[in-house]
């Protein structure tokens, strides 16, 4: 029997927090919930049982606002690169994971490189866990989003193309980029890869029943947090070549839609496949975080009102948070350039705004040179996107309209993926 007023649930899983967003058929948010960890040391952050505890809290909070029995589809996004090992019942070996920013031992990297001819980051972490867990014979390599989805369905064998990318999967060729028989462990441990939004299984586990879900609720393949955030900002119906999203947070993250796969090891550019398109992107070490080295948020707001966004400046900086840059230029020794500094703070801030805007333009020009179209319009998210003066400067420098995205929540993007099914 069809559910009246069905809902779609997106879950965004991080190391220190879980967020849930429920939407209706019109893609309107009807309920949200968030939970955070109480312990922030790395041992606690690596423990999937803490993710589960946060998930239970989020599901409980959502259940107080909506009828969970009306949720007909769930998609989960997680941190790309965070991985764990579990058995067919979802029990995690050692109750631990390796996070996206954990580095495997050098000997593990060397061994995989010698065996496979390459060493994907997430696969190296999985191999490292396998060694630490006394090299079990039967296990599943599971990304963060996969494990959470598996709690609802009891299926821990599947992943999506986006999460599989850094485990060594080629979405272009739809196969692993290495000879699986050369792995030091049973290749059956590798996940079965499918497209985001692919129906995987019903919410048939005891956990799902305890959460109040209907046994007819469908669990679908999710994606990475970055891809989910892009989909949230762009919207499902605007995913065509030239759609671009700039995340103007602490750092500058650029993503744009292309009709073909775009990648460059030199610039750290890679692409996630979504439907028949590719979402290509890269990240600069410049961004809004640099501004806080010089001004408080209140001072930034005050000075912004004194800036004429239509007036080009004569100063060109290259503000960086840390030494080195990879995109849009590849120079690990590049130093931050923020001199000469004018006496007028408003003039200095305008130069910083304009310089970061030129870096943003250079990012899109670099993607264009690699084969992705220069954007027709840029949707923008992050703290810097709220500064209207800066947005006008960026419009002038980029030569396209800048639109502040109405949604930037990765959980909302996951909910949109859930609604596809």
What are the salient characteristics of this protein?
421 residues; seven-stranded mixed beta sheet; alpha/beta; globular; 2 domains; Nucleotidyltransferase, domain 5; 31% helix; six-stranded mixed beta sheet
User: What level of helicity do the residues show?
Assistant: 25-40%
Mean pLDDT equals 95
| CATH fold name of the largest domain | Nucleotidyltransferase, domain 5
Please outline the major beta sheet.
7 strands, mixed
CATH architecture of the largest domain: 2-Layer Sandwich
Give the tally of β-strands: 19
Give the percentage of residues in beta strands.
15-25%
Brief overview, please?
This protein has helices spanning 42-46, 48-63, 106-116, 121-132, 144-153, 161-164, 206-210, 225-234, 297-304, 345-370, 388-398, 410-420; strands at residues 7-13, 17-23, 29-36, 71-78, 83-86, 140-143, 158-160, 169-170, 175-176, 192-194, 199-202, 218-220, 223-224, 243-248, 252-258, 270-274, 277-284, 377-381, 401-404. With 421 residues, the chain is an alpha/beta fold.
